Fold this protein.
Amino acid sequence: MRSKVWRRLLAVTVTAALALSATGCGSKASGSTKKDGKITLTNVSYDPTRELYAAYNKEFAKYYKGKTGKEVDVVMSHGGSGGQARSVVEGADADVVTLALAHDITLVEQAGLINKGWLKEFDLDSSPYTSTIVFLVRKGNPKKIKDWEDLTKKGVDVITPDPKSSGGACWNFLAAWNYADKKFGGDEKKIKAFEHDLYSNVSVMDSGARGATTTFVENKQGDVLIAWENEALATLKEYPKEYELVTPSISILAQPSVAIVDANADKNGTQKVAKDYLEYLYSDKAQEVIGEYGYRPSNEKILKKFKDKFDLNVNLCTIDDFGGWDSAYKKFFQDGGIFDEIYSK
């Protein structure tokens, strides 16, 4: 398998750099009121939310100013979701985390930084938006990629990030597993062989989803990118004549999660503004912004307004089909788990 050592070293290097970067964002000023009266809030997020939160933070600042008369400045940190979670555990002064999957937030909880029960603190298991996993191919789809099985064929060059550092990559792996599970009637030996064939075709594993998009789109590597739906939609909007989106027959309901980092918010005096910040994600205005930036609004009424953008009929499994994130992560992605097993062959 190509470039294994290189991509592992890259993931470690990038994760370390992200930890230092995020720690810098969360300085002692985080959450405090500056001399000009402006409140600073730090949001540690994952790679593909950059554009979403750039827009949302402006809307929230206007809402908060109107509600309280106070100005709030949101400082962002982005990277692979797993690496971002570890950076908070290691000291990045996040007031809130908005990560790719619940397991990454659970890691921060287990470090004593987030109160137990965070999953029920906000609506819909603290998931104000969802997404799914699709394929991005080059215009004309020269390799005729239509479904997961096509990614296992010889001569197909696949780009996907590393599940060890990327939450999106975990969703990718599980979506492919679910397809193979249905195809092979639950025969785990055949499912593992299917995943092995798929990952044998992976030429580059970046540490995060945005890095994988850059590899495919800007560096022109690979025949197909396994991507967050919002990443694929953003690429189509920017390069309409160069790429196509392919929705597989089976995918997964990806549920990014949000939480207040209670220990930091208590220290910084930001509990109230942090709660307002995450609750406002469920407002009609924020849900519209979420849909505009390629995420699926959790509000079903607003989601239907974007029916021309999203395939709302795709067959989606959920993390519950894998026993929840604690069970799934232990089985598939912990050191020595199934991903390591199939990737090391």
Observations:
- The CA atoms of residues 90 and 140 lie 46 Å apart.
- Residues 1-32 have pLDDT under 50 and may be disordered.
